[in-house]
């Protein structure tokens, strides 16, 4: 985007141009200001488009890269020009044309007009298409179609007419574009964006789209600054150029249409876009028919170049483009693809998309486009012609069509998934069934008897069959019994059959079995293989050796009904799964619990440390205040500390934390000592803070003179002392003063400062004054002058002291006791006087010591 | 805003000094972390940005949104807090 190429200064000036005073453009504020600039431009463009504003926005457009919005701005300019040149008499036709797509009559009527005005229009023409790329293009197409229909003659004159028509249509379309409100430009942008998206999605089948885009891309290359397209011309013509090109494109299309005789039918159909697919088919025919006529397209281009000399180069280039594109479908498609992508990369302008759609429709004639492309171009046509709502609806329809493909893909995946699931389900059922029918295998085994060749030798066929049948029957019966038993059928109390039961059953089956029961059982014993019948003797687990030992027969392959089997399998699975789930759940709950505990512990530790810190703070502050105020005990009872730190409602909760804190302090804190003290007759465990206070802050508060702020000269002090009375300001802050006799400290300070001045007879500190005023009376004006020089502009206790002269009578009014003062005051004497009373102020002690040492 | 939060009142009551950026109304832990990552580790740095944008509400809101993805309420809280602080102390 061009906006990113703006330097800070440019951005700044751009913003200023909008009447908005920006702050400094730094790396932090840059994005914010860029957004603001964009918004301002959009606002102005909206305003401009509505009122047909001047070219101001064009300039902005050139400097910015606002993509679609920027693109539509020049359109507004063009519209202005158009309106000025062509408004009168056009509106009706334009309006009529714009709303009625199937109006084929109007273009015919307008032909004459167009012809006459062609010359006029040529310079202005480029602008027309610009304004309303969509509508003009569509209009042009339909116009072309209509005119071509009527003028279905030889290519030569047709071409000529086509040219005229093209121009005429363009003229018509331009007014139409004018008539259209420019607010649609925004819609167009969206529409085009969507269209482009849709066409993009169809790129696989829509090479024609790409074709269109290529042309548009070329145009956009030269049109848009950010692309830095080919040097089409000077800056002035830049805006015109794309128009010109577009018009050329349209003309080309018109010519193409003209050139193909068979296309007229399709063109006619083009007039009625709603017919959609019909036209698609027709177009295709046209396309095929027009294959041979492709070369003709070059000549129309040449023709065009003749007619519009200034744009010759462009025409030629266009023709060349067309020529190149007419080579092969594949080639065209490939180009289209490239163009489309390039176009998109550039940042689409509404015009370009329109042109692309236009060229698309026409290109489709050249190449083998699939039906969807046609329908899409049709839809695009439809869009352009109808009002924005319809455009949106069309888009939705297109999107639906587009999405149907994706839907089918979606459904396909779902279908595959369900198929796989069903397959596995069937597999499982089959397996279960197989298990049930596994006995058949065994039967097979029996039939093919595992008894070995001996068996065959011993018995003849009938006997063999009998034996085998007997065994089969026995096996089945046993399986049934076992199955029923397993399934919970209480018919049989036992899973196995006793020998007698088996014998009776077999006899019931077939009388002939009788003799062979024992032999077959003997064979079973002999074979050792698992034939599905298990023989157990009197004592379980004893290997049988003789038939006589057999007491019970049991099936090892129970045959259960399918539902029963399924139920059992299901239950087994469920039980196993639930078992696993339970185990997993247990493990997970244990993990969660551990984590919870761990977190709780961390929280408690943190709280404990917090408490420790608070205790330390309390003790330290208490010790500090103890130092100042010797009435307090330097230790604090532990319960009192706890109660002061912990809210009553939290006491129970914090009990544990408190105890931990206590322990921690006892073990890790060296500055706090735990001892037992007797307070109020009761023994308390107390904490004593045993770190001597650093009291670094005390020195800051000491009342000392700290030098002069400015040298006193004629400018900031009166030339001579006026009166013997002084008012000194800003020596103290009455709110901040602590202690009993700080005013005496002030006295002393003043005297100390003026210790060379023996003329101070009275000092009065106004304790209540907010300004910290001190009144001083001197023996004479000379003394006061000297005091003034000493005090005025000095720093005292971090405050800048100022001095004023006071009238003597006012001073006496205020301080009548000063009238009688005549003895000069001395600092040391003052200090000595107050030493006893100032015991509690250690700093004064120090100061006093220093003063006395300094004074004497 | 009809009422202000406790955070707002606390911030506006005194000079911000070295308060962290999370002391600003509307800036919690998440937003504060994001601002800190961008270099705005103290409230006075955000104040600096606010002043550079000339105390303009819309610009400051946009900047907040871009920098730490604050939602509308958070933007409003922060802006109000800084504005009031400036009215009181600047």
UniProtKB/TrEMBL annotation, chain A:
Comp. bias (Acidic residues): 184-193
Quaternary structure annotation from Swiss-Prot or TrEMBL: Interacts with SMAD1, SMAD2, SMAD3 and SMAD5. Binds to both phosphorylated and unphosphorylated R-SMADS.
Keyword RNA-binding (UniProt): no
Membrane-spanning segments: 411-432, 569-591
Localization terms from the record: Nucleus inner membrane
Compositional bias of kind Polar residues: 54-63, 134-155
Chain intervals for the UniProt region annotation (Disordered): 15-308, 836-856
Biased composition (Basic and acidic residues): 173-183, 235-253, 282-298
Protein name: Inner nuclear membrane protein Man1
Role this protein plays: Can function as a specific repressor of TGF-beta, activin, and BMP signaling through its interaction with the R-SMAD proteins. Antagonizes TGF-beta-induced cell proliferation arrest.
Membrane topology: Multi-pass membrane protein
CDD domains recorded: RRM_Man1
Residue ranges of every copy of the LEM domain listed in the record: 1-44
UniProt-listed PROSITE patterns: LEM
GO molecular function terms noted in the UniProt entry: chromatin DNA binding
Entry's Gene Ontology cellular component terms: nuclear inner membrane
UniProt cross-references to SMART domains, sorted A to Z: LEM
TrEMBL record, chain B:
Keyword 4Fe-4S belongs to the record: no
GO CC field: condensed chromosome; cytoplasm; nuclear envelope
Pfam family, one: SAM_BAF
GO biological process, one term: chromosome organization
Broad class of the protein's primary localization: nucleus
Subcellular location: Chromosome; Cytoplasm; Nucleus envelope
Keywords: Chromosome, Cytoplasm, DNA-binding, Nucleus
Record-linked InterPro entries: BAF, BAF_prot, BAF_sf
SMART domains referenced in this protein's UniProt entry, alphabetically: BAF
Superkingdom per UniProt: Eukaryota
MF-aspect GO terms: DNA binding
Family statement drawn from the similarity comment of this UniProt entry: Belongs to the BAF family.
Protein name: Barrier-to-autointegration factor
Annotated organism of origin: Eleginops maclovinus (Patagonian blennie)
């Amino acid at each position: 985007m061009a906006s990113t190429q703006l330097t800070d200064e440019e951005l700044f000036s751009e913003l200023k141009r909008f009447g908005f005073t920006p702050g400094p453009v730094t790396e932090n504020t840059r994005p914010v200001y860029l957004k603001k600039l964009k918004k301002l431009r959009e606002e102005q463009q909206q305003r401009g488009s509505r009122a047909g504003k001047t070219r101001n926005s064009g300039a902005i457009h050139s400097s910015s890269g606002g993509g679609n919005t920027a693109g539509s701005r020049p359109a507004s300019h063009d519209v202005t020009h158009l309106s000025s040149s062509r408004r009168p008499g056009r509106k009706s036709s334009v309006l009529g044309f714009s709303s009625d797509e199937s109006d084929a009559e109007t273009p015919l009527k307008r032909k004459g007009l167009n012809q006459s005005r062609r010359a006029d229009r040529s310079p202005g023409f480029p602008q027309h298409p610009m304004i309303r790329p969509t509508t003009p293009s569509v209009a042009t197409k339909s116009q072309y179609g209509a005119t071509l229909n009527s003028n279905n003659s030889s290519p030569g004159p047709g071409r000529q007419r086509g040219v005229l028509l093209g121009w005429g249509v363009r003229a018509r379309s331009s007014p139409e574009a004018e008539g259209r409100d420019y607010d649609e430009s925004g819609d167009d942008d969206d529409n085009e964006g969507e269209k482009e998206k849709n066409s993009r999605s169809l790129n696989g089948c829509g090479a024609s789209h790409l074709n269109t885009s290529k042309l548009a891309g070329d145009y956009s290359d030269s049109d848009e600054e950010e692309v830095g397209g080919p040097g089409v011309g000077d800056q002035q013509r830049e805006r015109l150029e794309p128009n010109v090109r577009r018009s050329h494109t349209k003309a080309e299309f018109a010519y193409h249409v003209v050139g193909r005789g068979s296309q007229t039918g399709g063109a006619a159909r083009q007039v009625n876009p709603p017919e959609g697919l019909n036209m698609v088919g027709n177009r295709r025919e046209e396309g095929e028919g027009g294959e041979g006529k492709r070369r003709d397209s070059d000549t129309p281009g040449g023709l065009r170049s003749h007619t519009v000399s200034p744009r010759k180069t462009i025409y030629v280039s266009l023709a060349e483009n067309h020529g190149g594109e007419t080579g092969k479908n594949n080639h065209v498609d490939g180009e289209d693809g490239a163009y489309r992508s390039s176009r998109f990369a550039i940042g689409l302008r509404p015009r370009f998309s329109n042109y692309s759609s236009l060229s698309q429709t026409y290109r489709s004639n050249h190449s083998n486009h699939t039906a969807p492309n046609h329908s899409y171009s049709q839809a695009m046509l439809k869009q352009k012609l109808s009002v924005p709502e319809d455009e949106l609806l069309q888009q939705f329809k297109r999107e639906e069509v587009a999405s149907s493909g994706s839907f089918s893909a979606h459904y396909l995946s779902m279908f595959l998934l369900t198929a796989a699931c069903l397959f596995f389900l069937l597999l499982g059922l089959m397996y279960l069934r197989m298990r049930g029918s596994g006995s058949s295998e065994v039967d097979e085994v029996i039939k093919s008897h595992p008894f070995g060749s001996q068996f065959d030798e011993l018995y003849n066929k009938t006997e063999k069959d009998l034996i085998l049948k007997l065994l089969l029957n026995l096996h089945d019966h046993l399986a049934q019994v076992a199955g029923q038993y397993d399934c919970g059928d209480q018919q049989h109390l036992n899973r196995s059959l006793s020998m007698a039961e088996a014998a009776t059953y077999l006899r019931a089956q077939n009388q002939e079995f009788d003799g062979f029961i024992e032999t077959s059982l003997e064979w079973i014993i002999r074979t050792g293989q698992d034939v599905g019948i298990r023989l157990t003797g009197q004592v379980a687990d004893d290997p049988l050796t003789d038939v006589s030992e057999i007491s019970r027969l049991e099936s090892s392959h129970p045959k259960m009904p399918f539902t029963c089997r399924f139920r059992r399998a299901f239950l087994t699975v469920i039980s196993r799964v639930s078992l696993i789930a339970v185990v997993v759940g247990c493990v997970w709950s244990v993990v969660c619990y551990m984590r919870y505990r761990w977190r709780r512990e961390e929280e408690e530790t943190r709280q404990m440390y917090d408490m420790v810190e608070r205790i330390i703070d309390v003790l330290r502050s208490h010790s500090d205040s103890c130092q100042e105020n010797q009435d307090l005990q330097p230790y604090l009872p532990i319960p009192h500390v706890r109660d002061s730190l912990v809210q009553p409602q939290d006491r129970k909760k914090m009990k544990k934390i408190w105890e931990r804190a206590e322990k921690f302090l006892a073990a890790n804190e060296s500055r706090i000592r735990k001892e037992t003290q007797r307070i109020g007759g009761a023994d308390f465990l107390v904490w004593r803070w045993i770190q001597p206070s650093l009291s670094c802050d005390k020195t800051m508060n000491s009342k000392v003179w700290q030098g002069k702020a400015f040298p006193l000269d004629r400018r900031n002090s009166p030339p001579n002392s006026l009166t013997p009375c002084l008012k000194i300001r800003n020596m103290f802050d009455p709110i901040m003063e602590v202690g009993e006799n700080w005013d005496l400290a002030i006295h002393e300070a003043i005297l100390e400062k003026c210790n060379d001045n023996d003329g101070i007879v009275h000092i009065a500190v106004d304790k209540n004054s907010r300004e910290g005023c001190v009144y001083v009376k001197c023996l004479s004006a000379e003394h006061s002058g000297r005091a003034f020089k000493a005090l005025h502009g000095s720093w005292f206790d971090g405050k800048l002291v100022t001095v004023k002269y006071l009238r003597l009578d006012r001073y006496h009014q205020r301080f009548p006791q000063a009238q009688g003062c005549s003895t000069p005051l001395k600092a040391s004497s003052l200090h000595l006087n107050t030493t006893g009373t100032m015991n509690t102020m250690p700093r004064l002690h120090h100061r006093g010591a220093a003063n006395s040492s300094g004074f004497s | 805003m009809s009422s202000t939060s406790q955070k707002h009142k606390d911030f506006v009551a005194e000079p911000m000094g070295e308060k962290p950026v999370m002391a600003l109304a509307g800036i919690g832990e998440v937003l504060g972390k994001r601002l800190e990552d961008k270099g705005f580790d103290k409230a006075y740095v955000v104040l600096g940005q606010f002043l550079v944008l000339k105390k303009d509400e819309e610009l400051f809101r946009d900047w907040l949104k871009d920098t730490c993805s604050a939602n509308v309420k958070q933007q409003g809280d922060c802006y109000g807090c800084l504005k009031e602080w400036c009215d009181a102390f600047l």
